[in-house]
């Protein structure tokens, strides 16, 4: 006689144990802004020129609004503070477009991203390009970290949209959880054998 109910129970226990292991890896969005408020209310700002820098509906990547930067008088910066956890990795994604003027000129220009004072990415005197998704990352220190986006575009404008910062924690389950996983797997293997009377 074959015993078929035990493999189902053992498989369910093994699946639950594996789900517990998966739950040890935490991930989540810690900051998100698509500028749908129509302004920089989610950001701190430095050297923003109200005529050349702002939020409008002229060139959004998604939704109705995007930020634009074209201050000819220096670098314009928007930033936010990310509360970090030691051991967590933070992924920053955003969409960026570099416009050219009516003659096709897009330089001089510069763009950079920094977190906690460390440079994550920079572009200098690049040609015009359509919206492109960029992804950069940094590790948490356990303290709040300033995340800044810095723009300079003399000929035309940078367009900037859909900013998302996510955290990912890779944690190892506690020894008791690992023991349960081992028992469940041994049970699943042993129960998969057929017994005959």
Counted by DSSP, the helix tally is 2
Largest sheet: 6 strands, antiparallel
Output the CATH topology of the largest domain.
Jelly Rolls
CATH class of the largest domain: Mainly Beta
Share of residues in helices? 10-25%
Distance between the termini: 5 Å
Mean pLDDT across all residues, rounded? 83
CATH architecture of the largest domain: Sandwich
Categorize the overall geometry.
Answer: globular
Radius of gyration: 25 Å
Query: How many β strands by DSSP?
Result: 11
Low-confidence sequence ranges: 1-25, 191-197
CATH superfamily of the largest domain: Galactose-binding domain-like
SSE class:
alpha+beta
Strand content: 35-45%
Order of helices and strands: HEEEEEEEEEEEH
User: How many separate domains make up the residues?
Assistant: 2
Describe it for me?
The protein is of the alpha+beta class. The protein has 2 domains: 1-24 and 175-189, no CATH class; 27-171, Jelly Rolls, CATH 2.60.120.260. Helix content is 18%, strand content 44%. The strands form 2 sheets. Strands 1, 3, 4, 6, 9 and 11 form a 6-stranded antiparallel beta sheet that branches. The longest helix has 19 residues, at 5-23. 28% of the residues are buried.
Q: Could you name the key traits of this structure?
A:
Jelly Rolls, six-stranded antiparallel sheet, 2 domains, 197 residues, disordered C terminus, 11 strands, disordered N terminus, five-stranded antiparallel sheet, alpha+beta, 2 helices
């Amino acid at each position: 006689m074959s015993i078929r109910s035990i493999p189902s129970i053992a498989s369910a226990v093994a699946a639950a144990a594996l789900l517990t292991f998966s739950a040890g890896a935490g991930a989540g969005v810690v900051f998100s802004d698509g500028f749908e408020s129509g302004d920089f209310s989610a950001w701190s700002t430095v050297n923003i020129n109200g005529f050349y820098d702002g939020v409008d509906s002229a060139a959004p990547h998604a939704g109705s609004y995007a930020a634009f930067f074209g201050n000819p008088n220096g670098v314009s910066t928007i930033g936010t503070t990310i509360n970090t956890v030691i051991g967590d990795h933070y992924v920053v994604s955003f969409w960026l477009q570099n416009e050219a003027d009516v003659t096709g000129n897009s330089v001089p220009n510069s763009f950079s991203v920094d977190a906690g004072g460390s440079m994550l990415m920079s572009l200098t005197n690049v040609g015009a390009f359509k919206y492109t998704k960029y992804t950069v990352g940094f590790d948490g220190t356990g303290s709040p970290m300033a995340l800044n986006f810095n723009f300079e575009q003399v000929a035309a404008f940078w367009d900037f949209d859909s900013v998302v910062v996510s955290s990912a924690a890779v944690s190892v389950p506690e020894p008791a959880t690992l023991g349960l996983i081992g028992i469940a797997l041994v049970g699943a293997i042993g129960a998969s054998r057929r017994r005959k009377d």
